[in-house]
Design brief:
The protein is α/β, with parallel strands linked by helices. The protein is built from 5 helices and 8 strands; from the N terminus they run E-E-H-E-E-E-E-H-E-H-E-H-H. The mean pLDDT is about 95.
Length: about 190
């Protein structure tokens, strides 16, 4: 384990019933990219953190995405500044359209909307899951030169039933995540 790690979650419900089992600080940032970026930047500007771990729920858009998964790279699904830059890329920036954790895993696309329908662009980009915070967390970590890792529990299939499925399943991944922490510390 590392004394200077920080776990970032959007909502306390995502670690319901197990938060007391975690021996490192947990930051509840709130939902969405702005909340995640603001809260994490506030902490990193005041504290020395040597690893940020994001845990949260995600919608599965690929059959490969089930249960608890690690994220290898994340992109921004709602950045659409065409024709200045293709979807997913912030105009006038380079090297920030896909952020990589340095670990193996799946691809996540972050955006400030709850996905409830098929989006061909996600499949064309090789996306496995969608969430609402990880890209912002990874970008803040990049700016502060802090390594990050992302772990998502697939709570729904990002379809017309997503909201109901998320409500039923949001708490289901907490035990799996907590049980994976010793392996995460070893594989830093």
């Amino acid at each position: 384990m590392t004394a200077n790690a920080l776990i970032v979650i959007a909502l306390a419900d995502e670690l319901h019933g197990v938060i007391d089992e975690i021996s490192v600080p947990v930051l509840e940032c709130g939902v969405g990219k702005v909340n995640a970026a603001t809260e994490l930047a506030r902490v990193l500007s005041r504290q020395s953190i040597d690893l940020v771990i994001n845990y949260g729920s995600a919608g599965g858009v690929s059959a490969d995405a089930q249960g608890l998964i690690e994220i290898a790279e994340v992109l921004q699904r709602d950045m659409n500044a065409e024709p200045l830059a293709p979807r997913g890329r912030t105009p006038f920036e380079s090297g920030t359209d896909r952020l990589r954790s340095g670990h193996t895993g799946l691809v996540c696309a972050t955006g400030d909307n709850f996905v409830t329908a098929h989006d061909p662009w996600l499949h064309a980009q090789g996306v496995h899951v969608v969430d609402m915070e990880l890209f912002a967390i990874a970008k803040v970590c990049q700016r502060f030169e802090v390594p990050w890792r992302g772990f998502k529990y697939v709570s729904d299939r990002a379809d017309e039933n997503a909201a109901d499925d998320w409500q039923k399943n949001v708490r289901d991944g907490a035990q799996a995540f907590v049980h994976s922490l010793p392996a995460i510390w070893r594989s830093r």
